[in-house]
Design brief:
The structure is a single chain. The model has no long low-confidence stretch (mean pLDDT 91). Strand 1, helix 1 and strand 2 form a beta-alpha-beta unit. The chain is built from nine helices and nine strands. The longest helix is centred in the last third of the chain and has 26 residues. The chain is an alpha/beta fold. Strands 1, 2, 3, 4, 5, 6, 7, 8 and 9 form a nine-stranded mixed β-sheet that branches. The chain has a single domain, classed as Spore Coat Polysaccharide Biosynthesis Protein SpsA, Chain A (Alpha-Beta Complex), CATH 3.90.550.
Amino acid sequence: MTETIKISIITVCYNAENTISKTIESVISQDYNHIEYIIIDGSSKDQTLCIINSYAGKISKVISEPDNGIYDAMNKGIEMATGDFIYFLGSGDYLIPNVIPTVIHQLSDTQSIYYGDVIFSPINKIYDGKFTKYKLAIRNICHQSMFFPTQFLKEHPYDLKYKAYSDWVSNIFFISKGFRFVYLNIIIAKYEIGGFSESGDNVFRKTQGQLIRKHLGCKAYLYYKFRDLITDIIKPFISHFNNNK
């Protein structure tokens, strides 16, 4: 089955003329024939669309139009996807050379969510190993490391009220409903830190505790609160140390 698995890779971008080529090149250079590459551009004002169009014939589908945020654009890509699995790759991020053929042999079940690791660039930190519901309560699985069965996302698109962490909310939901998460000990991509997800999400932060209690249970909620408390305790000491270097 693995030889015929079709992967829909979705890149969402806006005014990405300085980074989009690197991302596209990392996809089209993969030695695997069953890739559907979809690019959703938010009606860029720079040369992004011209660069994308220069790869005509190597990209399956392109749309360029205004959207209501990054998750609205991702949902558009999900609607268009026809692969067995969906993978998201942000502009400025790039796949490890020929990682898709390696991953394909691990995707044995279209009812499971698969994830690996990424390298945070430019600090070259590997993120972040196997996740449990306790670990998911305090940090998210990197979107650029995950392969979702397409039908899962078509049935459960991203909630647009969360501006930066809707994928985290979805992961919490999926794990709470018993969806099988399979960890692959493979580095999937290089992920450029400092992107949109690090801008914060006030709606998520206000409801994070409720989401954890509801979907992950009381033990995970207590773990989350304990880690939050420890962070609050040590934060002044770290600040004092940094100020007195």
